[in-house]
Specification:
The protein has 220 residues and is mainly beta. It folds into 2 domains: 8-85, Elongation Factor Tu (Ef-tu), domain 3; 104-192, Beta Barrel (Elongation Factor Tu (Ef-tu), domain 3). It has helices at 64-69, 126-129, 161-166, 184-192, 212-217, and strands spanning 8-14, 22-27, 40-43, 46-54, 57-62, 80-85, 104-114, 117-122, 137-140, 143-150, 155-159, 177-182. The protein is built from 5 helices and 12 strands. The protein is globular and about 60 Å long. The strands form 2 sheets. It has a 6-stranded antiparallel barrel with strand order 1-2-5-4-3-6. A 6-stranded antiparallel β-barrel has the order 7-8-11-10-9-12.
Length: 220
């Protein structure tokens, strides 16, 4: 489990040939401290397992499903990426509950400055969008952020200078795709109410198990 508070910006050192599944090597410093082979590190919000350690980098395997669900397959050598080690039990929970399991990718459709802040607007598919609420939490490339504004088809976040300097978000351009992870609490609530497990917009919704009779039986 992660918090979405990025610890450092790493660098892609090597990628599999042809952007296929295989091993990524990622340059880092802070996240290497006390890290062991088998530990989890969130890379742009994707939970990866450390398979090898070097003095200034680590290696992680990436399978086809990971590439389908995330933007890792679009990375190039030298690209900056957000890194976070799994949360320790005695640490501060500064962000929100982040699993590192990406729900999908979406393009950045707007970037604008407002005094000391930068607004980023993203256009996800309908299934991801329906789990986003204003002032709720969203994870973008591994960064825990508060949703500042929503429309029917988009949501926006406002990036403070500290977040901009400590993450790779302000390196992004309009049209680039980012990894999105919805708030896990919302996903569980949707499932309990009978919604589809996947955030795939083509999945047909199931009938809700919450009925008028169910509510009366439980005192509502």
């Amino acid at each position: 489990m992660f918090t979405g508070i990025v610890e450092e910006i790493g660098t892609i050192r090597s990628i599999p040939t042809g952007h296929s599944a295989g091993s990524f090597r990622i340059g880092a410093k802070t996240v290497l401290e006390k890290t062991k082979i088998g530990d989890s590190i969130a890379v742009n919000g994707v939970c990866l397992t450390v398979t090898a350690l070097q003095s200034d980098s680590f290696t992680a395997d990436v399978m086809p499903e990971t590439l389908r669900r995330s933007n890792l397959g679009n990375l190039k050598i030298g690209d900056p990426i957000n890194l976070e080690r799994a949360m320790v039990a005695d640490g501060r929970f500064g962000g929100h509950i982040v699993s590192g399991h990406i729900d999908g990718v979406a393009p950045i459709t707007g970037i604008r400055k407002e005094e000391n802040a930068v607004w980023i607007t993203i256009s996800p598919n309908a299934a991801i969008m329906e789990l986003i609420v204003e002032k709720g939490s969203i994870t973008i490339d591994g960064v825990s952020l508060t949703v500042a504004e929503i429309t029917k088809d988009t949501f926006s976040v406002s990036i403070i200078p500290h977040t901009g300097s400590c993450t790779s978000l302000l390196h992004k351009k309009i049209g680039e795709h980012v990894n999105l992870e919805n708030d896990i609490i919302g996903k569980y609530v949707k499932r309990i109410l009978g919604g589809p497990i996947e955030t795939n917009p083509t999945t047909a919704p199931a009938d809700s198990r919450i009925t008028e009779e169910f509510l009366k039986e439980h005192g509502f």
